[in-house]
Design goal:
By secondary structure, this protein is mainly beta. The protein has three domains: about 80 residues, no CATH class; about 50 residues, no CATH class; about 100 residues, no CATH class. It is about 5% helix and about 20% strand. The chain has one helix and twelve strands, in the order αββββββββββββ. Strands 1-2 form a two-stranded antiparallel sheet. A two-stranded antiparallel ribbon has the order 3-4. A hairpin with a 2-residue loop joins β9 and β10. The longest helix is centred in the first third of the chain and has 11 residues. The chain starts with 9 loop residues before the first helix and ends with a strand. It binds calcium ion (4 copies).
């Protein structure tokens, strides 16, 4: 194997394994087929890089067991391709190969795999925009934090690299998503809970019948949330009750998810 040569695709590796090496008496060719775990392989064989591979060299250094070994070792495929009893990094020729950053293999045989190597910094390492950041596979929209979270629900970025953005990510449910505290992710939409009849004061708090949603203001005039209008408790969301033509809560259970009842008003707690 020439240094720098990329590992062959799995199908090629399987074909090399099947076609190049002698199958010992009593063994069956299927033993070298693709696998997902050791249990899929016969006794004495291991699932290495997706291929059933005997856990000890079966080519033999004397060449006697390999009728037609491959000329060169294919590095990083978990197979002793040239049947000399040495596999991948056990072969000096594999040392110094180009490190590929998303294959789970120590291609250059320096003891470090993929993002663990500085050469992979900012290279793609996984789905949904994951990049090698700070020597591990991280999420670029999250600054490489150890536990990626959808840290902003209004930045248009899939911060946690799960393929879902802002209110489209259930992690943002009830979180701020626009200007001001009253814009919240309710379902997949960003709504103003101070003025939206179907999400009045909190996600899912639906003003029934003729009830409308209007803002609640603090003493300083700052809008804090919304409340439904009513002329009977029957117009109020869920278990809220009507008082002075405004629906209100008596307990947290009268409010939406992630909310508390404070002074008769459902509010999101920071
Ligand atoms: Ca690699
Ligand atoms: Ca390496
Ligand atoms: Ca985001
Ligand atoms: Ca996301």
């Amino acid at each position: 194997m020439r240094p720098g040569r990329p590992a062959a695709p799995l199908t090629t590796a399987i074909l090399l394994g099947l076609g190049a090496c002698f199958v010992p008496p009593g063994e069956v060719a299927e033993l070298r087929f693709a696998c997902t775990d050791d249990g899929a392989c016969a006794e004495g064989w291991l699932c290495i890089h997706g291929v059933c591979t005997r856990d000890e060299p079966w080519g033999g250094g004397d060449g006697g067991a390999c009728a037609d070994p491959a000329e060169e070792e294919v590095c990083g495929n978990g197979v002793d391709d040239d049947c000399n009893g040495l596999t991948d990094c056990e072969e000096a020729a594999c040392h110094g190969s180009t490190e590929l950053c998303a294959n789970g293999v120590d291609d250059d045989c320096d003891g470090l795999t993929d993002c663990e190597q500085a050469v992979c910094d900012l290279q793609a390492c996984g789905p949904h925009g994951r990049l090698c950041i700070a020597l591990r596979c991280g999420c670029s929209g999250n600054g490489g934090a150890a536990e990626p979270v959808e840290r902003s629900c209004s930045d248009g970025v899939d911060n946690d690299c799960d393929g879902r953005i802002d209110c489209g990510d259930e992690d943002c449910s009830g979180q701020r998503c626009g200007d001001g505290d009253t814009w919240r992710c309710c379902g997949e939409g960003c709504v103003d809970v101070s003025a939206t009849k179907s999400h009045c004061g909190g996600c899912g708090l639906n003003c029934k019948g003729p009830g409308s949603c209007s803002p609640v203001r603090e003493d300083a005039g700052v809008v804090i949330t919304g409340r439904c209008s009513c002329n009977s408790s029957g117009h109020c969301p869920g278990s809220q009750t009507c008082s002075a033509n405004r629906c209100g809560c008596d307990q947290d259970a009268d409010c939406g998810a992630q909310q508390q009842c404070l002074a008769g008003v459902c509010v999101y707690v920071p």
